[in-house]
Amino acid sequence: MSDLSAAGGHARKLSQLRDEIDAQHAAAAEKQATRGKRGARERVIALLDPGSFSELDPLKRHRANDLGLDKSRPWGDGVVTGWGTIDGRPVAVFSQDFTVFGGSLGEAFAEKIVKVMDLAAKMGIPIVGINDSAGARIQEGVEGLAGYGEVFYRNARLSGVIPQISVIAGPCAGGAVYSPAMTDFVLMVEKVGQMFITGPDVIKTVTGEDVTMEALGGAAVHHAISGAAHLVAPDEDAGNETVRALLAFLPSNNMEDPPRIDPLDDPDREDPDLDTFVPDLATRPYDMHRIIESILDEGDFLEIQPAFAPNILCGFGRLDGHPVGVVANQPMHLAGTLDIAASEKAARFVRTCDAFNVPLVVLEDVPGFLPGLDQEHQGIIRRGSKLLYAFAEATVPRVTVIIRKAYGGAYVVMNSKHIGADANFAWPTAEIAVMGPDAAVGLIFRRELADAEDPAARRKDLIAEYEERFASPYQAAGRGYIDDVIDPRTTRPRLIRTLALARTKRVAVPPRKHGNIPL
């Protein structure tokens, strides 16, 4: 009888603890609702498949000290951790609770995150962090700093091993922004998420500048100006859908292939409109999105960093159900030139795809690198070479289609045959040359034009001759630098067949610790 009483007592104790924890989360959710946000546990449940969440360490609490922490020892210590599934695939997750010490990181808080990161690493599954934190917990001193260091160390060690995604769902300051910055993708919720190293009050004290949190580090700032945010969502529900869509393109870890889905789109589908899509006038822009959407399965394209460096487009799609990463020049912005921002944006995306075994499709229309004093002084040589390095280093299948312009060094950089591309095609509209015909004629035939009776007419004739001899795709095809000149309408089936062959690609790389990308 006493044994039964003891068992009943233990059950009552456990039930009481669970009720206390549930009540704590309910109160937090109610408080967050007044700020237009979900509670930490609610956020996890909303992200994962229904009923799939298994929580870790809900009973963990910080160690009391004489700096005020002895007065409040909430269950879970301000962060919800665990794992569940997204579209049936296991995913690790943590969610910071701003209602507990402002979501600040202390010793126990960090230990929980470190534990779930280690679990993700061991099981080879992605990790999603929902960030809503004021930074290090001042009352714990160096323990908070040590905790951040443990998290940062794992961010670095797991980079390229498992996908790491950060959701910024509240104001994140100080150390709380460095961990997201090291993850693969950062998604910010508009009007709710902010990131900054020092907040408005500190800036006011140090520099005298008045700035709001949104103007300092809101989603619009990091999406379009700093480039720190890869994706933006209008609310948390839309953010969850974007995270789920992103994970659908990625493998669970670097030892697996990306997940294929049964396609609804015909792999042999052609688009006759592409045959006449490129304008006859070489200086006239067109929207590269149209070509991308025509080629990909059902036109589905998840663009990454669409508002940052819009002269180059990066994103995920599928060809015959297989995920691919797309890198494409955008003639609608800066004529599709490569500048510092575009080079770094594309280099990061190329390396991400390479790390997670996602083949690369490059659609090229590039007149060169953006000229200018500002670009040179800010390091276009060093920073532009990051894209060259990223493509040359990548071992995933790589295919390039030259749509129109491919001039100068930018031709080489954009995944040319010379830096290891597996297949290179060109449309009949392609122009492959050291520089554009107009500029080339002006340099080569400067004296002849100066002495001509009708310089304008002679210039026109020379440009036509140059285009025929040097700027068409046929000279490059004749040298084997282009594998074939294809009808634009056949681009999709040609890419699908080529990538099917390349799935067995094997690349021998020299033994080394790692390369030294020009950071």
Can you tell me the overall shape?
elongated
Low-pLDDT windows of residues: none
How large a portion of the residues is in β-strands, by DSSP E?
Answer: 15-25%
Q: What Rg, in angstroms, do the CA atoms define?
A: 27 Å
CATH class of the largest domain: Alpha Beta
Q: Termini separation (Å)? A: 71 Å
Could you walk me through the main structural features you see in this protein, from its secondary elements to its overall organization?
By secondary structure, the protein is α/β, with parallel strands linked by helices. It has 3 domains: 2-247, 2-enoyl-CoA Hydratase, Chain A, domain 1 (Alpha-Beta Complex), CATH 3.90.226.10; 272-430 and 472-502, 2-enoyl-CoA Hydratase, Chain A, domain 1 (Alpha-Beta Complex), CATH 3.90.226; 435-471, no CATH class. 40% of the residues lie in helices and 17% in strands. It contains 19 helices and 17 strands. The protein has helices spanning 2-33, 40-47, 107-123, 142-158, 178-182, 200-207, 213-217, 219-226, 236-247, 288-295, 340-355, 373-377, 380-393, 408-413, 437-444, 446-451, 455-471, 473-478, 491-502; strands at residues 54-56, 79-86, 89-96, 127-131, 164-168, 171-173, 185-189, 194-196, 231-233, 302-304, 312-319, 322-329, 360-366, 398-407, 423-426, 431-433, 484-485. The strands form 3 sheets. Strands 10, 11, 12, 13, 14, 15, 16 and 17 form an 8-stranded mixed beta sheet that branches. It has a 7-stranded mixed beta sheet with strand order 1-2-3-4-5-7-9, with helices on both faces. Helix 3 runs parallel beside helix 4, helix 11 runs parallel beside helix 13 (380-393) and helix 15 crosses helix 17 (455-471). The longest helix has 32 residues, at 2-33. The chain is elongated. The termini are far apart.
